[in-house]
């Protein structure tokens, strides 16, 4: 097992299991049918439905439950969870807030009940995920892919990717280009046009710091 922050490891401090490590081991043991979800719920004195939510990732293991869960899984005082590979980024759970258009302007759909697990570069405590809808960025990301947004990173740099909101509270995902300032679709579809941003009020929601994509099996046929 490894500590929450590898840079803060001290010889006199015990190793601390992270939430995601404990959750991964819980899922593995449930998948191996080492115990029933009802027995585990009875042990924690919570409803079985809460166990289902934990396994799905829609409910976090609460701080006061962490030690009891680790003890149940028999990982409190051993090294059953291997260390992370050198250079690996920690996996974090971030909220999936809904959809962002990868096409014409439209109002973003909010849905904060879902979460995704991703390896995010750098310290980005307020990062969240959006699902791309449309084909205006299909040279970079396909419809249905997930992008990770850092709302604390809003400085504009040429060629970087951003989620932007206009004065009508509509949101889109585009590439920013300078001279002149504009939002550029990165698409094979010629119907998508460059959006000038000099004549309207725009708000930078955040920079796209990660794009997650699933394999496109059709492209391999």
UniProtKB/TrEMBL annotation:
Gene3D superfamilies: Umud Fragment, subunit A (2.10.109.10)
Pfam family for this entry, one: Peptidase_S24
Domain Peptidase S24/S26A/S26B/S26C positions: 95-209
Keywords (A to Z) from UniProt: DNA-binding, Transcription, Transcription regulation
Matches recorded under PANTHER family: FELS-1 PROPHAGE TRANSCRIPTIONAL REGULATOR (PTHR40661:SF3), PTHR40661
Protein name: LexA family transcriptional regulator
Lineage: Bacteria, Pseudomonadati, Pseudomonadota, Alphaproteobacteria, Sphingomonadales
């Amino acid at each position: 097992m490894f500590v929450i922050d590898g840079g803060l490891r001290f010889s006199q401090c015990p190793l601390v299991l992270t939430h995601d490590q404990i959750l991964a081991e819980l899922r593995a043991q449930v998948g191996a049918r080492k115990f029933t979800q009802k027995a585990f719920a009875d042990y924690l004195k919570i409803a079985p439905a809460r166990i289902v939510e934990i396994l799905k990732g829609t409910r976090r293991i609460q701080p006061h439950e962490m030690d009891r869960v680790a003890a149940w899984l028999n990982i409190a005082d051993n090294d059953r969870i291997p260390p992370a590979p050198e250079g690996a980024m920690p996996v974090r759970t971030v909220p999936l807030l809904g959809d962002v258009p990868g096409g014409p302007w439209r109002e973003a759909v909010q849905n904060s009940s879902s979460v995704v697990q991703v390896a995010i570069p750098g310290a980005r405590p307020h990062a969240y995920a959006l699902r791309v809808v449309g084909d205006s960025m299909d040279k970079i990301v396909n419809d249905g892919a997930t992008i990770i947004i850092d709302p604390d990173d809003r400085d504009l740099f040429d060629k970087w990717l951003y989620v932007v909101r206009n004065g009508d509270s509509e949101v889109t995902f585009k590439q920013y280009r300078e001279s002149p300032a504009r939002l550029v679709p990165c698409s094979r579809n010629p119907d998508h046009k460059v959006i000038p941003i000099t004549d309207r009020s725009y708000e930078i929601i955040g920079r796209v710091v990660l794009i997650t994509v699933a394999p496109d099996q059709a492209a391999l046929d």
